[in-house]
Write a structure and sequence with these properties.
By secondary structure, the chain is α/β, with parallel strands linked by helices. The protein is built from 19 helices and eleven strands. α15 links the parallel β6 and β7.
């Protein structure tokens, strides 16, 4: 026989569908739960289970489920009224039983306000009624209204003239993203995952650190400054009269890189090299990459070539490795995709990866570095 605990669980499982019916404007329909479990063969237990079922029903409590019976003849009990249907006849019965009266009232108020302000969110509300319940809509709607009126604010979140708590947007980026993707879809940078970039906001950008290797260029363009760190958006706008760009994995090698005409050197910061992918002016330069001679170094080189296909490597060859190799162990790589490497680079990469070997840039003598910079 079905138990009150099972009824409660089944009733709660129907709550989302009930909320969706509210969104659709459908009047409450009685909620029916099958109660036709096989009765207990033990007469005493059968009577106890039946009594418990009745004691938790509307018949005894004044609200909740009603029990419908069917008279059947059983071997153990003879003729018995067996519960076959559990029914919540009214909305009040159902909500009071699962203790959702206040929550449902608030849900109705919230969806009315949401649909009034943004009718385009109706399908989202229907799909995610629990998200309506879980969030604070007075503030959310203020945020949505602001972006609806100004979809490209180009301000920091802290600067947005919205009357909400300072941290509200920071703490609710997930739900705000879902809403704005619908409300201002034409202005969304859909390929961007970062909230600020996706919704045309300013943010604490990644910094590019680089050195001007040509002293004449340093004097004429940067007032003699050679070592610079600037936000990526400003780096993208630079116009430097040089022809060669060196990218090095290690910061100390960037700092100690020798001065050279028509050149700059950028600290690639390992896989942080991705920050450079949209720097269009780099495509017109001769780019050389120097990384550690290990699996990750060649994987980063391959990554650089996805942004700048003509990039050449230097001091990442078999001769350099064999000359200075100290049998240092590298970091295991699980990369299985095809890499953008030359035949010689790929052979060395496979050897390093299979044998878990590594030669760090810092272990290559400085005089050798100076002689082998292209």
């Amino acid at each position: 026989m079905i138990t009150p605990t099972e009824i409660k669980k089944k009733a709660e499982n129907k709550y989302v569908a009930y909320l969706q019916s509210i969104v659709e404007g459908i009047s409450f329909q009685p909620i029916v739960i099958a109660g036709d479990k096989r009765p207990n063969s033990d007469t005493v237990k059968f009577d106890q289970e039946l009594a418990e079922l009745i004691n938790h029903s509307k018949e005894k409590k004044g609200y909740g489920y009603s029990v419908e019976y069917q008279t059947v003849k059983t071997k153990q009990h003879g003729k018995q009224d067996i519960p076959t249907v559990i029914r919540f006849q009214t909305e009040v019965d159902y909500l009071k039983y699962i203790n959702k009266e206040k929550e449902t009232k608030k849900f109705r108020e919230d969806i009315a306000n949401i649909k009034k302000s943004f009718p385009e969110l109706k399908d989202w509300i229907y799909k995610y009624p629990n998200k309506v319940i879980e969030n604070e809509w007075t503030s959310l709607l203020k945020v949505c209204r602001y972006f609806k009126n100004k979809p490209d604010p180009h301000l920091y979140i802290r600067e947005l003239p919205i009357n909400v708590h300072t941290k509200f947007i920071e703490n609710n980026k997930g739900i705000i993203k879902e809403l704005l993707d619908i409300i201002i879809g034409d202005y969304v940078n859909a390929d961007e995952k970062q909230f600020e970039v996706r919704f045309n906001l300013k943010f604490d950008e990644p910094i590019v650190r680089f050195r001007i290797l040509d002293k004449t260029v340093s004097q004429s363009v940067f007032a003699g400054v050679t070592d610079l760190s600037i936000p990526i958006s400003q780096f993208q706008l630079l116009s430097i009269p040089i022809q060669i760009v060196y990218i090095v994995e290690n910061k100390i090698n960037m700092l100690s890189f020798p001065f050279r005409n028509d050149s700059i050197v950028i600290w690639g910061h390992g896989f942080g090299i991705e920050v450079l992918k949209n720097v269009e002016w780099l495509n017109s330069k001769h780019i050389y990459y120097w990384g550690d001679i290990d699996a990750q170094g060649f994987e980063i080189l391959s990554q650089v070539r996805t942004y700048f296909p003509s990039t050449q490597s230097f001091m990442m060859d078999k001769e350099t490795f064999e000359r200075f190799n100290e049998n240092d162990k590298g970091t295991k790589s699980n990369v299985a995709t095809e890499l953008n490497l030359s035949k010689e680079e790929l052979e060395l990469y496979d050897y390093l990866k299979n044998n878990d070997l590594r030669l760090e840039q810092e272990k290559i003598p400085f005089d050798y570095v100076i002689k082998n910079i292209p």
